[in-house]
Specification:
Layout lengths: L22 H9 L15 H12 L4 E5 L4 E4 L4 H4 L11 H4 L4 H12 L4 E11 L4 E14 L5 E10 L1 H20 L5 H11 L10 E6 L6 E7 L11 E2 L8 H7 L3 E4 L19 E7 L9 E7 L7 H68 L7 H32 L7 E3 L1 H10 L2 H6 L3 E6 L6 E3 L1 H17 L5 E9 L2 E8 L33 H11 L3 E7 L3 E9 L19 H17 L33 E4 L1
Parallel strand pairs: 13-15
Antiparallel strand pairs: 1-2, 1-5, 3-4, 4-5, 6-7, 6-11, 7-8, 9-10, 10-11, 12-14, 13-19, 15-16, 16-18, 17-18
Length: about 650
């Protein structure tokens, strides 16, 4: 048998020049005794094999050459890491013996190459026994037949690259993204646990099991809020645990404020199925979930490690991201719970305030009613008329009692609405006539205020169901508000059909509302700062109450305003009563609330008149001429016939 030793320094023997170089694997090939293999000694290798091996060794890309009936392996330095602990015995070993665990997925393509048919496979998942355990791996490779001198397939040319890191990275990122999206909706620790369980399927191959424990600050116990991949009756997933329980090293994780690795789990899973593989996971990580600024952990995450992957830097980063996702969810939950507690406290305060307003309003209203009754009688007594001085004093008392009654009624209405105790009675009314009558109450105030006052109401083909008391308050509040903030120009009230609705519009040429304040005008107690009205008085509940009353009618209210030009309020109500509670529909009653309505209207007007200067300060002469409405307010006249009041 010929020797294959190298001759230095002149170079290789003349018949082994094809083995020059090749790095570590080239040296290994030259040092091996191939005579004991099916390939035989190096100097007897066929030229086709020599050429292929020379090409393989000179390449920087991972390449494996399989030759002969037993597919004896020869590979280069770049292929060496793929072998893992199988090297060096894999050099010169049979392919199907060395890579037996990969044959279920590559065997068919390998055999086709032996028949002369090449194959290219991308990101193929396989399980390789190259580090003492079945390891999940992904490869992109091809099998190409090598023809020998006879033209038959003598071997396989197998370039390959491992894509495990890329494929696992994409899979883990995708699963974590889906889990993070699901966790974003969690509003409690239990919901976090449920979302972890629901999202586990997308992570099961990297996360064989997961447990989420919350630390109960009251009892000191750890409560299992969520689990996945592990049976609930397993001793490794008890429903409650003490911090120092031996099941998991929670105490050490808390003390070190870091992750603790637990090995040797496989025996503890005896008889319990866990994960997607036959082998039970042997390792888990215990990670404390600590919120920023907190000392004690909110809870703990116990995450299993795949039985078919070792923990490397990328895998550890996956667990860090998992813990971060849960930590973010916990932060959201604690913020939500804090907000809920604040909201509950505010609601409690609000309910107490509503009850207080209701009680105080009732306490005020009874004596006010008893005061106003005799005052009305005294001022209207023709048999025993009051003297001028007495009348002046009682007039002053009467006006202020009406103003106080208006405020008390507003507070009482609001408290009833908020408490859900409002008792509306919806009756079919001629809304045009009713609105015209109500608008007439403000004629004197508008005239004395120097404003042109238009009332334009269109006859409607059908009655509209309204609560008369509520409608009076809506109309009076709108007119009072327009009068208050219109120092010159005009106020127009219109009522007409608008599509399938009936629309009440109150339009003024007053000071308008700043654009930044328009959306807030219906907020309770909100007042536009610095508004130059006839008075600075007001509680800020008139428009808010009006909006609630409109909503009780199944309607809507909108405001359009340009600062310095004027404001328009539109109230839309549906026809019919299908949108109203059936038990609150009442038959028509023209005068059921007449007296109360007169008193309410008087209260609004008396208050409006108080905003005017004393008689001595009122300029002499006619009131201002009719002022054109701003261009942004539609002035299309409603169709006749309609009642009309014009004060100018």
């Amino acid at each position: 048998m010929s020797e294959t030793t190298l001759v230095a320094p002149d170079g290789l023997q003349s018949d082994l020049n094809w083995l020059a170089g090749g790095g570590e694997m080239g040296a290994l090939i030259r040092s091996m005794d191939w005579s004991g293999t099916p390939l035989g000694p190096l100097d007897r290798w066929p030229q086709s094999l020599r050429t292929t091996v020379s090409l393989c060794l000179s390449s920087t890309f991972p390449i494996l050459v399989c030759w002969g009936e037993q597919d004896i392996q020869i590979y280069n330095d770049a292929y060496r890491p793929i072998c893992g602990d199988l090297h060096p015995r894999s050099m010169g070993g049979p392919f199907k013996e060395i890579w037996a665990t990969a044959l279920p997925v590559v065997g068919e393509a390998f055999d086709r190459a032996h028949k002369g048919e090449g194959a290219y496979i991308r990101d193929q998942r396989m399980f390789l026994d190259r580090h003492g355990y079945l390891e999940e791996a992904f490869m992109t490779f091809s099998f190409s037949p090598i023809r020998d001198e006879s033209g038959a397939v003598g071997g396989i040319f197998h370039p390959i690259t491992e894509t495990t890191a890329q494929v696992l990275g994409a899979r883990r990122t995708r699963g974590l993204r889906e889990l993070s999206d699901a966790l974003a909706s969690a509003r409690s620790a239990s919901e976090i646990g449920r979302q972890l369980a629901a999202g586990h399927a997308a992570l099961a191959e990297d996360l064989p099991f997961v447990l989420f424990y919350q630390h109960d600050a009251v009892t000191g116990q750890l409560l299992l809020r969520g689990r996945a991949g592990i049976d609930g009756h397993c001793a490794l997933a008890p429903a409650t645990l003490a911090l120092d329980d031996a099941v998991w090293p929670f105490a050490r994780a808390a003390a070190g404020r870091g992750t603790r690795r637990v090995d040797g789990l496989a025996a503890r899973f005896a008889g319990v199925r866990c994960g997607t593989y036959d082998e039970a996971p042997g390792t888990a990580l215990v990670m404390p979930v600590i919120l920023p600024g907190q000392v004690e952990p909110y809870g703990y995450l116990v995450a299993g490690v795949s039985a078919r992957r070792a923990i490397d830097a990328d895998y550890r980063n996956f667990y860090d991201l998992l813990a971060a996702a849960v930590g973010t969810a916990v932060g959201n939950v604690t913020a939500y719970e804090l907000e809920q507690r604040r909201a509950e406290e505010l609601a409690k305060i609000d309910r107490a305030k509503t009850a207080f307003f209701s009680n105080v309003s009732h306490e005020f209203r009874t004596p006010l009613t008893l005061i106003l009754g005799p005052l009305d009688d005294a001022l209207a007594d023709a048999d025993e008329p009051l003297g001028p001085a007495q009348r002046q004093r009682l007039d002053l008392t009467h006006r202020n009692a009406l103003r106080l009654l208006k405020l008390v009624n507003s507070l009482l209405d609001f408290s009833r609405i908020e408490a859900g105790r409002v008792q509306a009675s919806y009756q079919p009314v001629d809304l045009a006539r009713l609105t015209t009558d109500l608008a007439g109450v403000f004629e004197s105030a508008m005239a004395r205020g120097g404003l042109a006052y238009r009332v334009e109401t269109e006859a409607l083909e059908a009655p509209v169901f309204v609560d008369r008391d509520m409608w009076e308050k809506i109309v009076f509040n709108l007119l009072s508000n327009a009068f208050k903030f219109t120092l010159e120009g005009s106020v127009t009230l219109r009522l007409a059909r608008h599509g399938s609705m009936v629309r009440l519009s109150v339009i003024d040429t007053g000071i308008g509302i700043p654009a930044s304040q328009v959306e807030r005008v219906f907020e309770r107690f909100h007042r536009v700062e610095g508004a130059a009205g006839r008075t600075y008085e007001g509680t800020g509940i008139g428009l808010a109450l009006m909006q609630e009353l409109v909503w009780l009618h199944g309607g809507s209210i909108a405001v359009h305003s340009v600062e310095g030009e004027g404001t328009r309020f539109d109230v839309d109500l549906p026809f019919g009563h299908a949108h109203l509670p059936a038990d609150r529909i009442m038959p028509a009653s023209a005068s059921a609330h007449e007296k109360e309505g007169q008193r309410l209207g008087a209260a609004f007007v008396e208050e409006a008149l108080r905003w005017l200067p004393d008689e001595a300060g009122v300029p002499a002469g006619p009131v201002s001429a009719v002022v054109p409405l701003p261009a942004w307010i539609s002035q299309a006249p409603p169709p006749d016939p309609r009642p009309r009041i014009l004060v100018a």
